[in-house]
Write a structure and sequence with these properties.
Blueprint (H helix, E strand, L loop, with lengths): L86 H26 L7 E4 L13 H12 L9 E3 L12 E5 L10 H12 L3 E5 L26 H10 L6 E2 L22 H11 L8 E5 L2 E7 L20 E5 L4 H6 L7 E5 L5 E6 L5 E5 L5 E7 L2 H24 L1
Parallel strand pairs: 1-2, 1-3, 3-4, 4-7
Antiparallel strand pairs: 5-6, 6-7, 8-12, 9-10, 10-11, 11-12
Length: 413
């Protein structure tokens, strides 16, 4: 039977130790590559011209030998050959292990690379950090984005004192509620900071940056009433005219990719009353869109303004919506134009810019609540208000989906 040499010879590629055949002496160590050092024997003298031995019987009751010395300079011993696998089998096995290792290396960056956390900024001027409008709104939205998308956003936003704050550069997306800042006149430091931030890919979203003219005299009303208009508030237009004199806010078309960045269309409208459902699907929020205006840099949205959206984001510690939202819709009927054309009203009269550039004339009662509207085509319709738990829940889901689309679009463009 072939075996590894019982002397300090090395077996290439086998890596197995050898035990003496038909004798009582035990090999100490191993001479095969990968398993240890050379073989060492005790009480062995040089052997010459060794012939194979046949019919050897096993030896019993062999006692260990002590006080032996290692043998050196052994000559004329022919090592037994160590068998190697056939060349073809070895090549196939090598190629198999090579491609398997390559496959693992390709997978390693995907599985081992950590997902980078993204910080979202929020404008919170001194004194407004704890008393800002809808304080739980943005954290609630960011938790939703973190749970529903692959974006690893930190739920707690970075609070920025103003737009010259050094931490602005750490935030690819910044949220600002228009009412959280009393004066939208930018300092020279803010102008320089915003120019650099927005030109390098930053995104600024100003919620309630569109406030219908009949709500502007009382800014707090713009936190609770969202009326569709496609023109930035005068304060916002003037502020950014100082930052980018050559750029202007333009209405955001309902076909813009922002509205389908993550969610598409409206939430389930089947629970809405028929009149409310029809108006919501066709006029209020068709296909999940919303009135907005944008300032673009090299074709990319850099600053986005909308009527108030944050009122639909906030949840309390019990995961319940914090606000109740009702719907305002326009309804018409036969004979109504003649009646409203001569009707008295106790509030102001305002014009509101439509998506197509036309203007609605809004007639208000006391408290700046719109009562009826005269539309560009000469039609008159009256405002009606609807409220229910189903309507409020639907509005919350819509606003959360819209906020998610805004953030996802900002972080991917």
């Amino acid at each position: 039977m072939p075996s590894c040499s019982r002397l300090s010879q090395k077996c290439e590629g086998q890596g197995a130790g050898c035990r003496g055949q038909g004798a009582g002496d035990r090999v100490q160590g191993t001479g095969c590559r990968g398993r240890g050092a050379g073989i060492v024997f005790w009480s062995v003298h040089p052997v010459h011209n060794v012939h194979p031995v046949h019919n050897v019987h096993p030896v019993h009751n062999v006692h260990p030998v002590h006080n032996v010395h290692p043998v050196h300079n052994v000559h004329n011993v022919h090592p037994a050959p160590c068998p190697l696998p056939p060349i073809k089998e070895f090549s196939l096995q090598y190629m198999k292990y090579f491609f398997y290792s390559l496959f693992l290396l390709l997978l390693l960056p995907c599985s081992a690379q950590p997902v980078i956390e993204q910080r979202i900024g929020q404008l919170a001027p001194d004194g407004r950090t704890l008393f800002r409008n809808y304080p739980t709104a943005l954290p609630s939205l960011l938790r939703h984005v973190r749970e529903e998308t692959t974006f690893n956003v930190v739920p707690e936003p970075v609070m920025l004192n103003d737009f010259s704050d050094e931490r602005l550069k750490q935030c690819p997306f910044v949220y600002a509620n228009f009412a959280d800042r009393a004066d939208w006149t930018f300092s020279e430091q803010e102008i320089n900071s915003l120019q650099d931030y927005l030109r390098r890919g930053g995104f600024l979203y100003i919620d309630a940056g569109i406030t219908a003219s009949f709500l502007r005299e009382r800014p707090e009303l713009g936190q609770h009433h969202s009326y569709a208009e496609w023109e930035a508030s005068p304060e916002i237009r003037n502020a950014f005219q100082a930052v980018f004199p050559e750029l202007t806010f333009q209405p955001l078309k309902r076909s813009d990719p922002l509205y389908t960045a993550f969610y598409q269309g409206l939430p389930d409208t089947s629970l809405l009353p028929d009149t409310v459902r029809s108006y919501t699907e066709q006029e209020k929020w068709p296909e999940g869109t919303y009135s907005a205006a944008a300032l673009r840099i090299r074709g990319r949205i850099a600053v986005l303004v909308t009527p108030i959206v944050a009122m639909g984001w906030g949840k309390n510690s019990l995961n319940q919506w914090e606000t109740t939202i009702r719907f305002r819709i326009l309804e018409g009927s036969k004979g109504l134009p003649e009646l409203l054309a001569n009707a008295a009203y106790s509030g102001p009269r305002f014009e509101v810019v439509r998506e197509d550039g036309g203007k609605d004339v809004i007639y208000c009662q006391e408290g700046a609540l719109p009562a009826w509207a005269q539309e560009p085509d000469g039609n008159w319709r009256v405002f009606r208000y609807y409220s229910s738990q189903e309507i409020s829940d639907f509005a919350h889901v819509f606003y959360t989906r819209l906020g998610t689309n805004i953030i996802v679009h900002a972080l991917t463009n």
